[in-house]
Amino acid sequence: MPMGKSRSEDLGRRRSLSDFDPLAAALLPPSNETTEERESRIKAENEAKKISDGIDEMLRQERLERKKARAEVNVLLLGQSESGKSTTLKQFQLLHTPSAFHAERIAWRAVIYLNLVRSVRRILDALSPEADVDDHDDESLETASIIISSNGRPPSAISGTRVPKYNVYKQRLEPLTMLEEKLTRLLTSPEEDEPTSWQQRNDVNGFAPTSNGRPAPTIMIPQNSSLSQSQSLPVSPTSYLSPTRSSGSSTWKGKEVTVHTSTNWRKAFPLGGKSKSPKSAHSGEIEGWWEDPDDPVHILNACAPAIQELWKDPNVRQRLEEKKIRLEESAGFYLNEIPRITAKKYIPTNDDVLKARLKTLGVVEHSFLIRSGANRGVQWKIYDVGGARNQRHAWAPYFSDVNAIIFLAPISAFDQMLTEDPRVNRLEDSLLLWKGVVSNKLLEKVNIVLFLNKCDLLQAKLNAGVRLNEHMVTYGDRPNDYHSISKYFRNKFGGIHQSATPNKERELYIHLTAVTDTRRTGTIIEDVRDIIIRGNLKSLKLV
Ligand SMILES: Nc1nc2c(ncn2[C@@H]2O[C@H](COP(=O)(O)OP(=O)(O)OP(=O)(O)O)[C@@H](O)[C@H]2O)c(=O)[nH]1
Ligand SMILES: [Mg+2]
């Protein structure tokens, strides 16, 4: 630009020479415009501008809402304890962040070991001669897998098969008692007396309330999802046991298998590679947990033949049947795979992780970027809640901005009682909870998807001859087969929704599920994803 000339002068000159715009010129007011003409023109222009601004604002709002719809979908997983919420979340992870899921598998070893050791102890407890006089003890109800006889007669009233080798088993499996205590301690935060959910938490006690009354959530998807198995050889969890923890506790035994904060179990079972470098020829460092003499695998491996004998002993099976204990149907069941699970270099498979049982405490947030079709990706926040009765108070603060709920009701639980309150039937509890959720005014605009879960266990139970009408008189004398019963539950839950919902327009989506089954659940999750996205757009009036 030549010196001494202003920029606007220059621009004006250039416009007049080369940027002559015939349209702009045509729109200019006539040079001989009268005052009235000018006033009426300006009035008309102002009105046109008002209309145009209105349209702009509408478009801006729409863009904003579109962006909002694209940016975030909040999904709450609800249902009673052991209904399968955390397992559903694992399936979401497996589908959307598979490498992270794989990288985490090794960390589940401690939980799986504890699940296995607890199954063994439950067998020994059931065989114990004292158990015959002590069967009403709450400990026998520690998980939902204990079947309460419908006639109210305690199972111990049935005269029992003796297990001649009981004392031999007890002696050979004695090391597992210490191991159970050790693993429980490892997986339990010092502030808790029972281990809980494996998800990462910021707070110490599970509730660090924020301004909206919610516990501060954390995202657990590991950042180091690039860790491959070969890079991530873990070391023994026991090397990480805090030396300051007390070694004596009277509360560990019989508590449900649960893990609380990342400060304990995930550190205790590091992904390896990070905490210790792989073995080098000269350093003498260990290559993996199997070389650490303190690792739990050695005790388990040594006890494996005795566990195997115990589980295969016909007298034991007979005794368990008499006591109506069906371990196969219980959470965290690994007794049919003892050699594989107790092998020194055992690495949990996807299915093992899906079967592992850890109780969730509080509410934990997980984020996924989910793409579907041409969609650029939607940020999903999935909230996994603790379903036990003393955990449900934490749900309500999440109701205000949730877009969808996946409610899980384990329909195989019709003959079981709540662990929290052995007087309450689990299915009754699920139905009441369901009614509470679908009738909630705050949730009237929320899309609801119902998973009638544990259908595989329902099928197994019916095959074993368990009758629904012995536990649910309203079923009457309808056929006791899977098809009729699943249809009955579908109608029952659907009917409650229909009569209790404050929003009669709301469509309810019901799926019969077995969320431990990856193939079936993958398809269902994709369906649910589309339903939720569609419902979300609809509620924003964008489609
Ligand atoms: N066989 C079978 N097992 C299931 C199914 N769904 C869940 N499980 C198992 O049941 C146990 C409990 O499942 P979770 O997902 O931990 O239950 P939850 O609803 O998160 O329970 P809380 O955290 O206590 O509220 C786990 O061991 C699961 O592997 C199913 O459909 N079939
Ligand atoms: Mg859970």
Describe this structure in words.
The chain is an alpha/beta fold and 543 residues long. Residues 1-17, 134-158, 198-252, 259-264 and 270-278 have low confidence and may be disordered. The chain has helices at residues 7-18, 22-27, 35-71, 85-96, 98-104, 109-127, 129-133, 166-172, 175-187, 265-268, 296-312, 314-322, 338-341, 350-355, 426-438, 455-463, 482-500, 518-539; strands at residues 72-78, 363-370, 378-385, 404-410, 447-453, 508-512. The radius of gyration is 31 Å and the shape is elongated. It has 18 helices and six strands. Helices cover 41% and strands 8% of the residues. It folds into two domains: 72-100 and 363-538, Rossmann fold; 104-215 and 229-355, no CATH class. The structure holds guanosine-5'-triphosphate and magnesium ion. The site of guanosine-5'-triphosphate has 25 residues, from helix 4, helix 14 and helix 16. Mg(2+) binds at residue 360.
SSE blueprint and pairings:
Blueprint: H1 7-18, H2 22-27, H3 35-71, E1 72-78, H4 85-96, H5 98-104, H6 109-127, H7 129-133, H8 166-172, H9 175-187, H10 265-268, H11 296-312, H12 314-322, H13 338-341, H14 350-355, E2 363-370, E3 378-385, E4 404-410, H15 426-438, E5 447-453, H16 455-463, H17 482-500, E6 508-512, H18 518-539
Parallel strand pairs: 1-3, 1-4, 4-5, 5-6
Antiparallel strand pairs: 2-3
Helix pairs in contact: 4-5, 4-18, 6-9, 6-11, 9-11, 15-17
The chain binds guanosine-5'-triphosphate and magnesium ion (MG).
The site of magnesium ion has 5 residues, from helix 4.
GO molecular function: G protein-coupled receptor binding; G-protein beta/gamma-subunit complex binding; GTP binding; GTPase activity; metal ion binding
Pfam families: G-alpha
Biased composition (Low complexity): 222-239
